[in-house]
Amino acid sequence: SCGMCLKANPRFECGWCVQNKKCSLKQECISGNGGWMHASSENSRCSHPRITKLFPETGPRQGGTRVTILGENLGLQFRDIQMGVRVGKIPCMPVEEEYVSAERIVCLLNDATNYRVQEAHVEVCVKDCINDYRALSPRPFTFVTPYFNRIQPSQGPISGGTRITVEGSYLNAGSYVSVRFAQRPCFFKRKVKHCLLSCASFVGMNEGYAPNTVSNYLIDSGQKHYTFRLQFLRHKVTTKLSLTFCIYSGGTLLTVSGTNLATIQEPKIRAKYGQVESFHNCTVYNNSVMVCLAPSVADSELGFSESGTDPDEIGFYLDNVNALVVVNKTFSYYPDPVFEPLSPSGVLELKPTSPLILK
Fold it and tell me: Which helix (H) or strand (E) covers residue 80, if one does?
């Protein structure tokens, strides 16, 4: 394209031959001086700009959306397009630090609260807004009013870390999302689709219900409020194990009892011995019982005793419940079992119904 030609390294001495519509050396352009443009020329600009991609394609009427425009011939210098970007009749102010000559414009959309049109095409004018230097987006930008109507789950540990799902409409709009509950941040994770997003919850307050908890949901400059009840729960975990020992390689089934365990979304058991720290996921059965497989410490650089070795640490990762990362429990690791060969040849012949004895 013309724009890519004129922004090429000057040592190539490339210019745009207007009549032939191609990148060429000056002597190869049959139009002569008047039909050959070079980047060093004072008034060089490429005609027929084109928008190939626009994102996001929706945003709140309150503005603040960072609209990214990709295309061809979108000016050679920032000043070429500085005052020439609109969404319908609403100005969109280009950000100089994010401008890529001829290829990309990022602009901040102004407030469109009083703009009655729901859809409008993005317009880019290069210096002058005449047909040869004007581009329209192939798809329109849509002004929407995001809202949400449900939050799940409605309870979580007071230490935070719960993955919260917000449901509603147009939640994929705009370029920036911020969620807060009772003035505490919910760290945005991802937009799942237009009606879902997820975030990791704040550190809570006191144990119990927080009635009329207000959630603030901010998309760019558009803010919405939602009132609901959120319960903060404290967790107490004590281990009751059928065995207080395990082999180095782990895998022993451990039953863990406690309170409010059903609110934990990603429970894990951990063990640390020397430089090795390993984990195993746990399965929560109800509010008071979960089952975990003992983690392995077989790769530790430290030695093991035949009479049992205590790990340096054993504990749990329960979302953000930091008090249980290390728990004071008596637990020992023993050598992995080793089987003797069935016979010198490795083959053992048995009569039917004879017992098989493993040693």
Answer: helix 78-81
Q: Could you tell me the CATH number of the domain that includes residue 151?
A: 2.60.40.10
Q: What is the 3-state secondary structure (H, E, C) of 250-265?
A: CCCEEEEEECCHHHCC
- Look at strands 313-318 and 289-293 and give their pairing: unpaired
DSSP state of 81: H
Cα–Cα distance, 168 to 59 (Å, whole number): 15
What single-letter DSSP state applies at residue 8?
S
270: left (phi over 0), alpha (psi -120 to 50) or beta: beta
Residues 181 and 219 in one domain: yes
| C-alpha to C-alpha distance for 25 and 15, rounded to whole angstroms | 6
Are 266 and 218 spatial neighbours (Cβ–Cβ below 8 Å)? no
Q: Is the full-model pTM beyond 0.70?
A: no
Q: What is the pLDDT of residues 287-307, one digit of tens each?
A: 888 999 999 998 888 888 888
359: which residues sit within 8 A by CB, 6+ positions away? Answer: 339, 340
- The CA distance from 255 to 291, in Å, is 5
Secondary element (H or E) of residue 178: strand 177-181
